Structure formats: structure tokens, C-alpha cells
Amino acid sequence: MTAIEFPSQRVSLWYFRIALVLFILQVIMGLWLSINYAFTLPQALVDVFAFNTARSIHTNLLVAWMLLGFMGGTYYILPVECERDLYSTRIAYLQLAIFVLAAVTAVIGFLFRWTRGKPLLEIPFPLNALIVVAALLFIANVAMTIFTAKVRSALQWMLLGGVAFLAVMYLFGMPFYQNLNTDYYYWWWVIHLWVEGAWEVVTASIVAFIIMRVTGVDRKVVEKWLYVETGLFLFTGIVGTGHHYYWIGAPDYWLWWGGVFSALEPLPIVLMVVDTWMHVRERKNPIINPLTWYYIVGLAIYHLVGAGLWGFMHTLPPINYYTHGSQVTVSHGHLAFFGAYGILNLTIFYFAMPRLKNIIKYQDRLGRWGFWIMTIGMFLLGLVFGVAGILQTYLERFLDIGYSTAQITMMFWFRIAFGIGVVFLIGVIITVWHLFTIKPAPDQPAETLSSERGPAAEGI
User: What pTM did the predictor assign?
Assistant: First the structure.
């Protein structure tokens, strides 16, 4: 007997493993970027490995391991929700091979200056085409699994809608428009509507599934928030795009509407977790692995603070006028990405990887160390970046001091950021090691569950 119900769920394991390796590489590259801010490096070293190259690798590794986590999580969840195996495991493995090939080639290409030069969308067109092929295979596999299933649920359609939206929005970043304003307009369509639209929908679906399995709470309690989230994400996500339209000549009203509505997007997930917490007291089955619940609560808190409150404060037009593009943006970006999606992926990994190894209850001491080091470290890192950004804003945009002069004053804070980043990397390594070597707890139940079906089948 196994802790998973359908053999095809095992395809997700390779998605998770590769994502974790890329996570470590992304953090290492982030440390290299912080060194560039904290110290004056020899020009010969800068010429060999330029800052813009390192930044391209850092941000694209971020996108790659996030997407791999989403894809793997979807492939783990779908069979349980549809009560059947995936439509095709061959397609799933082919899609993984194409995606990883494109991602690795892109990173190597950056080292040789093979780039489009568009921040966050640097991948050249041929590799973009491969990613689109992988996305189409992903959508087809998910859609056929759902269409051929005998059961239907809101969660299935949310997942399908989210992954389809994700693929469609990516297409707008592939052309290169001669008019720079037009180019940046569609650039934000990809960057913002990916992160605050498609990704949020996928996040909501995955979190809803995990909450039902971990707590045993009734499906109706969780799914009611899925309907709310669908409306809020689509409405606030689309309108919220406007808070980026600062330098492209868009009407002024976009700035206020965009700043306000962007801050509303994390609320449904937070409300879903709070509502579930109230129902946990009435649950029939205990939370067997508390660490998974830690990650769910951490996801909600970071989502609200990093993406919502901090994003809202610095995107209000009177503030954004001064802070736009400063280290304040970097602070918000780190807190939001780690809180909304980094912790989400780690939640998926801690939920699924033990089951894929036929472990119901696992030893979590090492994992708890990793959790607290990472979450506290990222909070401090966001705080230090925020202080540096406020200092930068005051020196450059109030006192009109030149960038290089202001940078000298900010180097102290970047050295602190580098030290915190090293600690954060230690937490990441501990977490990844724990996930790769996870072992059953001494008091694990004698028999594993043969089914995860039903709201009370946490098992797990």
C-alpha cells in the first residue's frame, strides 16, 4: 500500500527535485549581486561576469523554479481531484525535458551575451518558442485529464484556467515593439498579470487542495473562497496593472486605481486560511505534520505583508513618484516573491515529497530549522533593503545627490544584506537537504493510506 493513490503522481517528483536545485542556484546568484552593491570589485572581474548578466540569471532562475513547482504541484493534485491517472505521463516528462533544456540553454546563453536585453524577459525568441511548446503540452495534458475525468470540481477548473492564463499572457512578451512605450505596456502585461493574475489563481487552487488534505476541513468551506478569489484576482489583477504605468504616458487615474487594487489581491488567500483556522478546532483528524501547516500560515502572513501592505504603501502615487525603481522596490519584490510563491512551492514540496516516498509522518526537526531561518532571514533582508531604499530615495531624489555618491553611503546596508543573505542560503540548503533526505518519524502509523480521496483523508 502506498501514500499516493495514482502512479502518475510520481511524475511530479522530478519537477520538485529540479526546482529545488534551481532555488539554491538562484539564491547563490543573488548573493553575488549583493556583493556588487556592498563592495567595489576589480574592473577585470566585473568585465568577466557583468552585473546585468548575473541579474538575468538570478531573475530567470526564479521564474524557472517557480513554474516547475506549479507544474509539479498541478500534476500531483490533478489525479486525486479527477480520480484518475494523468492523461499522459509521457507528455509530462517531455514537457519537463523541453522546459529544462530551454532554461539551461538560456542561462548559459546569458554568459555569452545571448539575450534580448528586456529585464525579466531576456530569453531569446527561439528559446521562448520552446517554452511555449512546453506550456502548450502542459495545458493539453491538464485539459485532457480533466475532460476525461468522471468527476468535476471548482478546483479543477481553477487550475486549468490558471495554467491557460499563464501561457496566454506569456505570448505578449515575445514580440519586440519599436515604440518603447508600447513595448513596456505589454511588458507589464506579462510581468504583472503573470504574477498578480495567473500565478495567484494557481496559488489559490493549490493552497485550497493542501488545506483540505492537511486539516480535513469541509470542501465547501475552502471552495467558497475560490469563487471569491477568481473574481478578485481577475478584477484587482487587471486593474492593478496600472500602478506600473508610471513612465509610459498613461492617464493619471491608472496610478491610483492600480496602487489600491494591487493591495487587495492577497486578501482572499488570507481569509481562506483564517476561515480554515477557525474550522481546525472542529476538525475530525489531527494535523499529522505541523511543519506543512507552518508553511501555509507563513504563506498567508508573507502574502499579506510582503505583497499586499508593503506593495500598497510604496505604490501609492505620491510615494511612488520618489521610490519608483529604488531599493524600496527590491525590498517589496523579495518579500512578495518569497512570501507568495517561494513559500507556496515549499509548501507543495513538504506536502507531496514525503508521500511520494511513502512516508505519512516525517521527522521535521531539521525542516523547522530551515523554515525559521528562511522566514526570519527574508524578513530582515526585506527590512534592510527597505532602509537602503529610503536612504537612496532621500539622497538621490530629495537632495539630488548623484547615484555613485549615494551608493557609497548605502554600501554599509548592503554589507548587512549580504550577511543576512548568507544566513538565508544556509536555511535554504538545510531545507533542500531535508526534503531530499526526508525520513519517517519514529511514531509513523504502521500502515500507509491507500487513498487521499475525500476531505478527511489528510493522511498525510
Answer: 0.89
